[in-house]
Amino acid sequence: MNDRFLRACRRQPTDCTPIWLMRQAGRYMPEYRAVRERYGFLEMVKRPEVAAAITMQPINAFALDAAIIFADILPPLEGMGIDLTFEQGEGPVIHNPLRTPADVAALRQPDPHETAAFTLEAIRLVRRELAGRVPLIGFSGAPFTLASYAIEGGGSRDYRRTKQFMYSQPEAWHLLMQKLTTLVIDYLLAQVEAGAQAVQVFDSWAGALAPFDYTIYVLPYVQQCATRLRETGVPTIYFGTDMNGLLPLLRQIDVDVLGVDWRIYLDDAWAQLGPGFAVQGNLDPTTLFAPWPELEQRATDILNRAGGREGHIFNLGHGIQTETPVENVRRLIEYVHEASQI
Amino acid sequence: MNDRFLRACRRQPTDCTPIWLMRQAGRYMPEYRAVRERYGFLEMVKRPEVAAAITMQPINAFALDAAIIFADILPPLEGMGIDLTFEQGEGPVIHNPLRTPADVAALRQPDPHETAAFTLEAIRLVRRELAGRVPLIGFSGAPFTLASYAIEGGGSRDYRRTKQFMYSQPEAWHLLMQKLTTLVIDYLLAQVEAGAQAVQVFDSWAGALAPFDYTIYVLPYVQQCATRLRETGVPTIYFGTDMNGLLPLLRQIDVDVLGVDWRIYLDDAWAQLGPGFAVQGNLDPTTLFAPWPELEQRATDILNRAGGREGHIFNLGHGIQTETPVENVRRLIEYVHEASQI
């Protein structure tokens, strides 16, 4: 088995730098668009055989070092009583957003074995299909990011409702975060049980917070997830964007790998985290639209900044974008392997 | 004259911490909304007596330590040949966005004395009206932020067109940035000549860039602006959001003050910049929606992190938001003065 990715998560030596790409199974691939024409987005997530096939598309197309299960962070909320749809071109819409402490109290604590059975089944299908070629990553939204979706009801510019909820209803906030933390832990443990060999926790929106607020309202819950997951022995990755000012706080978290966005030099971020972490990142996804020499130069810079140290997983600093040229994706993956060979 | 703000810009001792708020003349004030009902947005900017009156509104309402001229970063582009309107609810729209090197070559190099005469006249009116009560800040968009507006044609999620332009047409990019740098310098020198006692350069969108790209495509031009403005003896403030990963680069820039967003502890940012800078910031603007005890606690934390050092200007970490409760604005300003008294 190609275990470069898992070895790098554990800061063990590898023959070359492993690479995978956030959202690697996505719209930029013609194979994906072909499937997407036949199904709605949530339908693809909820049909295990479709989710499994999509998960495999980039693995079959490129020399990636890890697969990540095709799923979405929001469906696990449905089991709590949250009413979710994906509108054409608008992204997710939550029709009963949380507005009061009573709304929080009414949330159920679901068993992901039942309510997210489709993703667990997809994990089992992919593991069988992969037959050890590369490891499979499971994932979940982080408690804060799930909470802000549930409160805002969709995307947001300034997360005003979420922050007002935190500030004005701290008890209900902490109850909500505890329920979500339990959900995230149960969901990820079930994924590990189903065959996920590493898990990534996406805190896509936590970068909207001041460190003062992150410390009080978010960090203890991320830490709770990390501590529980560490017991499984499966590597955990924590990722968010716009969090470079929070790095001195993030080093308190018991995760194996920190995902770094593209807005900081990889070595600056790593220095702030300290040698106890592996780091994942951090090419600007928009760079994939550049002519190859420009792209190569930036990939080289990241490899140089990693400096051949154990514990670097090459990735983008955020998800790959729609319309990204497939040829650049292929070349980047090959280049990272070649250029980092010992 | 209340010169707390100017003294803090120069890292001189003050009797208490000066405070002003980005976008302090804005929609959250009923006085502003009353004027806005009668004029279009660009009309308010372009009528010097209206712009002057709006500039004075927060000065008359609150104990602020500086005024900032009411203007917008985009109208100076019109003199270059860019066709700009503000659409109801949509913000600025540029109808002839830059797409080719020929578009860049065709841009005129305007004389802001002519093309931005309205803002210069507003500055003169405000200085007369202020009669030395507090200093007046002038401002401009930074070259990169102006360039990305001109290329994208409006707001953007990922600045893909801007980055593609940089990567694919580097010569045209550098020509564009040089033209914009000349514009920014000429515009700010004219503002100083008209009476601006400090200037702020807003690089609102530079936080979209990786440090590798910021270094090549942006930093030399910000540095050019800073170096030229330093000759005037008037303090210069450089501000952007999402730039906390760039702090080790920003310390190379010859500005007096660095504006810090709310996504980092003020003392962490200051430590990365070093003692050669004054810092401005950095309360999360959404905190103004919190109950007073929560707001007070966060303002106190920022003052404690500044630790009474010379060179702290209290401000938000981004512009004040529409619908912000006026009463919290008033209390915050009073509290910062009281709590920071020596």
Please give a quick description of this structure.
Chain A is an alpha/beta fold and 342 residues long. Chain A has one domain (26-277): TIM Barrel.
Structure report:
Two copies of one chain form a homodimer. With about 350 residues, chain A is of the alpha/beta class. The first copy, chain A, has one domain: TIM Barrel, CATH 3.20.20. In chain A, about 50% of the residues lie in helices and about 10% in strands. In chain A, the strands form two sheets. A seven-stranded parallel sheet of chain A has the order 1-4-5-6-7-8-9. In chain A, strands 2-3 form a two-stranded antiparallel sheet. In chain A, strand 7, helix 15 (about 265-275) and strand 8 (about 280-285) form a beta-alpha-beta unit. In chain A, helix 4 (about 50-60) runs parallel beside helix 8 (about 115-130) and helix 16 packs parallel to helix 17. The longest helix of chain A is centred in the middle third of the chain and has 25 residues, at about 170-195. The first copy, chain A, is globular. The two termini of chain A are about 20 Å apart. The interface of A and B includes residues 208 and 245 of A.
